[in-house]
Amino acid sequence: MSLASLFLSTLAFAEEPIAERRPFGILYSVWIKPEEKSATVKIRLSKHPEWVRRMRLYIDSDRYSDFLTRGEISIEGDEVLWTPPHEDAWLQFEVALENKRPGGRYDGYVTKDWALLRLDDLVPSIRSDIEDMTQSQAKLQFMLPKGWSVATSYPRYRSGRFKIDDPDRLVDRPTGWLVMGKIGTIRERIGGSDIAISAPVGQGVKRMDILSFFRWTVPSMQEIFPRFPKRLLVVSAGDPMWRGALSGPRSLFVHADRPLVSNNATSTYIHELVHVAMRARSGPQADWIVEGLAEYYSLEVLAPLWDDQRGAL
Asked: Is the distance from CB of 150 to CB of 178 less than 8 angstroms?
């Protein structure tokens, strides 16, 4: 067995069933303010708040501010400790939406017509102390400017709220990429996956080309990776966004100028899809392992294309 095959086999472990847990409710509400390039976020314990003893949020103090709450709160550096009351429990804060990377490009950007960022940046990492045998049932809702819509990788209720469900977490929080505003989105089911490609209007994103490329390549990836996501969102935009690609849970961002296949016979799209499918993280100074596997499998997925071309010559 090759090293790559051995590595992937360890990811396909069988999940042991757990006893049925009692649910408590979380409602994440987000008010988008494009003119201020910020948002107001409220975390409300909508059902059985008495089952949550404490929530600890890990924040970037330069981005998160103006904390308000029902309950007790203490802020020390980049940690916020919230002790919710047993009734009407909520925590509210402001978050700056834009994020500039070294070199001046953005992986979170807001204009008067659209915004593209990670949900992870709206709701920071949370660690909770909860009653035994409980877990969350979480929902997410947006209050958007008039004429705006939003695309995420989560299923949507008829109410417009999104269902946040992460089987690997007892307390769900929204993660992955999202795009909102005046956007265009195309959707299709490929194999067992519902795929959406979404981008702001006027950014030169060739949504149908990307979808056609996925019709050919995604079935191969689903065969290689049995845990390929059931829902996938691809978002894109032009400058001044990061001129590359970045993966996230069930989602990825690719700059509008990136080709489907580069001159060196590699594909940024497939490379990042492998990251999404593998769900692997590297330890310190070990990025080369994960990156090498992503590049190897992206080449394997594209190999039939080059075989067909050689046969036609």
From this structure: yes
Distance, CA of 151 to CA of 78 (rounded, Å): 30
Q: Go through the chain and tell me how many residues it has.
A: 313
Is 70 exceeded by the pLDDT of residue 17?
no
- SS3 label, residue 284: coil
C-alpha to C-alpha distances, 258 to 52, 107, 117, 184, 245, nearest whole angstrom = 45, 15, 18, 18, 8
Between CA 77 and CA 120 the distance in angstroms is: 19
The DSSP symbol for 50 reads G
SS (H, E, C) 113-129: CEEEEEHHHHCCEEEEE
Residue 125 main-chain phi, psi, to 5 deg: -60, 140
Instruction: State pLDDT tens for residues 168-220.
Output: 788 999 999 999 999 999 999 999 999 999 999 999 999 999 999 999 999 99
pLDDT tens string 213-228: 999 999 999 998 989 9
3-state helix, strand, coil in the chain (%, to 5): 25, 40, 35
| Tokens 């795929």, residue located | 195
- Catalogue all structural domains in the chain, each as residue range(s) with its CATH number: 23-180 (2.60.40.3650), 183-307 (1.10.390.10)
For residue range 33-73, what is the model confidence (pLDDT) as tens digits?
Answer: 999 999 999 999 999 999 999 999 999 999 999 999 999 99
Of 100, 91, 110, the closest CA to residue 36 belongs to 110
Tokens of 105: 């490009």
Question: What is the rounded distance in angstroms from the CA atom of residue 166 to the CA atom of residue 170?
Answer: 8
Task: Evaluate whether 41 touches 27 at the Cβ level (below 8 Å).
Answer: no
Integer Cα distance of 123 and 109 in angstroms: 16
Q: Give every CB contact of residue 244 below 8 A, 6+ residues apart in sequence.
A: 254, 255, 258, 268
